[in-house]
């Protein structure tokens, strides 16, 4: 039964009435009909199951529950409602209330227990009004405990709670967490009204929220001090990149009372696990670093120690150097043999390299493991996939026998997957390359982060037809669910797992378990980091599908990679005396002057 009672409507109160007795229901409806101050919309349920269905489908302001339902369903309803719908105030009704029953319903969270025979409109209206008011009061108190109302930022209390959860997750996933505390100097702050500061923090919060990820948190810690909790970080370079982005945004002028106001931010940063795993210690270290930034004149970012400051600044300088190298088209691909054990065709792995003005050629994956600027990520993704597809087309025209080309993806931040999908659609299809010949080696953080968001971005990338591989598997904690739910085609074992072969029996047992796990999930398994034939033989015996040679060996140019494809038709990995194969075919002995075939990298915008 759904009914809206007549009355001058100041407000509509939605009532869920759970009662199996038609006469009792009519009594309640008639009483509510006599209340002139409020309009009621009543939804009737005849059983516990029906009541739960209504609560799952709609929201209500008050619940009226008859305790005399068959089999004590009234008490059962209170029990489940206190867990599933704790914010719903419930008034219990009974034909014969007792002190024991009153204490029982009170312990189950009911707002009141009323005797049916003594009900009147005044008593019923007052009890409903008090119950709803109490519910709203508790909700407002809870909101004030967790939200700073003037700015809509989270409170310091909730900030600490989220930090505790973030640290627990980081310990399980082998990730890093950063706490950033920022003091905001509004210049001649004595002339600025508190309401205007609140408005400024509200604007800053919205600006930062648009730049950061949904998993990150922004809190108001005091009148002019905010805290940021950044989760799921990879390393110090990543943290420094995020800190630089936040500082850049905070320096943008904002309008206060119609006047542009420049804010001078002073930031302190502390990181887990460098400062330990205690949330209060991280906050304390970040505050100390922030005070150091203030003592140096403000307007800067300082980490918890000068050593980390120096390392972070080095990362920023390196990032700037790389961006300059990309702008001047100084990227190259470098190639490594991928020897097949279970198939006849060998493959190649490749990584992005760039020329540092002082240090020479650097691997992107080992020097810059995190970017946050989306245009730069997009440009590198387009360039890398265009270069790989172009080289594949050249090798195919020359008749080289290549099963696939694996491209290592060095990015760890969340926009990467959609940008890779766009790059594959634009670059691979433009060159008429079968997409299954391209294999993208994705770092674990990308796969884990996508799993927490439902896996849609990885599924969209997989729909392009390329193969997807979990790179660095076995290096840190992982969840079986991440593998079962995702659309990946294979695993690449972390290079460190092969380091002590064949002497470490414990390592051999670990490798056997990981290889069997991958095969049981229907995935190809590739080992990385093997350097000599004894290791090849052990990996083949353990059931590994292929091995990619160690990336600390000299890379091959495109011409050398083509020669390797023509010569190394089958891998020399038997346990008995190895086939006579020149060593340079398996492992190049001379470092190529140019790590890639492409003298002038394709322009991402043009390709």
Structure write-up:
This protein has 607 residues and is an alpha/beta fold. The chain has 3 domains: 2-146, Rossmann fold; 149-316, 2-Layer Sandwich (Alpha-Beta Plaits); 329-586, Alpha-Beta Barrel (TIM Barrel). The chain is 43% helix and 22% strand. It contains 20 helices and 24 strands. The strands form 5 sheets. An 8-stranded mixed β-barrel has the order 16-17-19-20-21-22-23-24, surrounded by 6 helices. The chain has a 6-stranded mixed β-sheet with strand order 1-3-2-4-5-6, sandwiched between helices. A 5-stranded mixed β-sheet has the order 10-11-9-14-15, sandwiched between helices. Helix 7 packs across helix 8 (236-250) and helix 8 packs across helix 10. The longest helix has 26 residues, at 121-146. It starts with a strand and ends in a 21-residue tail after the last helix. The model is unreliable at 4-9 and 569-607 (pLDDT under 50).
Note the topology.
Elements: E1 2-4, E2 12-18, H1 22-33, E3 39-45, H2 48-57, E4 62-66, H3 73-84, E5 90-94, H4 99-107, E6 112-115, H5 121-146, E7 147-148, E8 153-154, H6 156-173, E9 176-185, H7 194-211, E10 217-222, E11 225-233, H8 236-250, E12 254-256, E13 259-261, E14 264-272, H9 279-295, E15 301-303, H10 306-327, E16 331-340, E17 347-356, E18 360-363, H11 364-367, H12 374-397, E19 405-408, H13 416-430, E20 438-443, H14 444-452, H15 456-462, E21 467-473, H16 480-485, E22 490-493, H17 505-520, E23 524-530, H18 533-541, E24 546-549, H19 558-567, H20 583-586
Parallel strand pairs: 2-3, 2-4, 4-5, 5-6, 14-15, 17-19, 19-20, 20-21, 21-22, 22-23, 23-24
Antiparallel strand pairs: 1-3, 7-8, 9-11, 9-14, 10-11, 12-13, 16-17, 16-24, 17-18
């Amino acid at each position: 039964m759904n009914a809206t009672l007549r009355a001058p409507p100041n407000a509509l109160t939605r009532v869920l009435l759970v009662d199996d007795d038609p006469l009792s229901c009519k009594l309640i409806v008639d009483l509510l009909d006599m209340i002139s101050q409020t309009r009621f919309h009543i939804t009737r349920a005849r059983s516990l199951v029906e009541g739960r269905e209504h609560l799952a489908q709609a929201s209500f302001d008050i619940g009226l529950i008859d305790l005399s339902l068959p089999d004590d369903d009234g008490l059962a309803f209170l029990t489940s409602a206190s867990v599933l719908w704790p914010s719903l105030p419930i008034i219990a009704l009974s034909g014969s209330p007792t002190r024991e029953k009153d204490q029982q319903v009170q312990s189950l969270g009911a707002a009141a227990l009323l005797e049916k025979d003594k009900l009147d409109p005044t008593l019923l209206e007052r009890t409903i009004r008090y119950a709803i008011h109490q519910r709203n009061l508790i909700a407002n108190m809870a909101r004030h405990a967790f939200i700073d109302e003037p700015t809509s930022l989270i409170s310091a209390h909730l900030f600490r709670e989220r930090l505790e959860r973030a640290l627990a997750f980081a310990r399980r996933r082998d990730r890093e967490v950063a706490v950033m505390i920022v003091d905001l100097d509004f210049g001649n702050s004595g002339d600025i009204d508190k309401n205007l500061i609140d408005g400024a923090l509200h604007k800053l919060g919205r600006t930062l929220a648009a730049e950061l990820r949904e998993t990150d948190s922004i809190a108001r810690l005091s009148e002019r001090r905010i805290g940021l909790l950044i989760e799921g970080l990879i390393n110090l370079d990543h943290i420094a990149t995020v800190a630089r982005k936040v500082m850049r945004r905070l320096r943008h002028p904002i309008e206060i009372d119609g006047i542009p106001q420049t804010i001078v931010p002073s930031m302190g940063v502390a990181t887990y696990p460098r400062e330990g795993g205690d949330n209060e210690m991280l906050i304390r270290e970040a505050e100390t670093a922030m005070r150091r930034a203030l003592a140096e004149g403000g307007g800067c970012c300082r980490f918890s120690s000068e050593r980390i400051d120096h390392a972070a600044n080095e990362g920023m300088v390196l990032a700037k150097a790389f961006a300059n190298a990309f702008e001047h088209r100084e990227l190259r691909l470098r190639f490594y043999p991928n020897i097949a054990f279970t198939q006849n065709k060998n493959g190649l792995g490749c990584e992005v390299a760039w020329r540092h003005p002082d240090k020479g050629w650097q691997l992107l994956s080992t020097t810059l493991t995190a970017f946050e600027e989306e245009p730069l990520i997009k440009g590198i993704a387009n360039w890398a996939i265009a270069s790989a597809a172009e080289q594949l087309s050249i090798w195919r025209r020359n008749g080289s026998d290549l099963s696939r080309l694996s491209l290592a993806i060095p990015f760890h931040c969340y926009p990467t997957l959609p940008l890779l999908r766009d790059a594959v659609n634009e670059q691979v299809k433009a060159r008429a390359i079968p997409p299954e010949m391209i294999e993208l080696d994705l770092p674990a953080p990308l796969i884990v982060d996508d799993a927490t968001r439902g896996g849609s971005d990885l599924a969209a990338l997989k729909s392009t037809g390329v193969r997807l591989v979990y790179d660095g598997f076995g290096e840190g904690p992982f969840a079986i669910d991440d593998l079962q739910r995702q659309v990946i085609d294979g695993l690449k074992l972390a290079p460190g797992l092969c380091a002590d072969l064949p002497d470490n029996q414990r390592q051999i047992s670990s490798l056997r378990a990981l290889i069997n796990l991958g095969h049981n999930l229907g995935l190809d398994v590739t080992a990385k980091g093997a350097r000599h034939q004894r290791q090849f033989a052990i990996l083949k015996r353990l059931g590994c599908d292929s091995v990619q040679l160690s990336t600390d060996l000299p890379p091959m140019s495109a011409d050398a990679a083509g020669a390797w494809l023509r010569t190394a038709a089958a891998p020399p990995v038997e346990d008995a005396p190895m086939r006579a194969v020149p060593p340079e075919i398996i492992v190049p002995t001379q470092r190529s002057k140019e790590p890639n075939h492409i003298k002038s990298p394709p322009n991402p915008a043009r390709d």
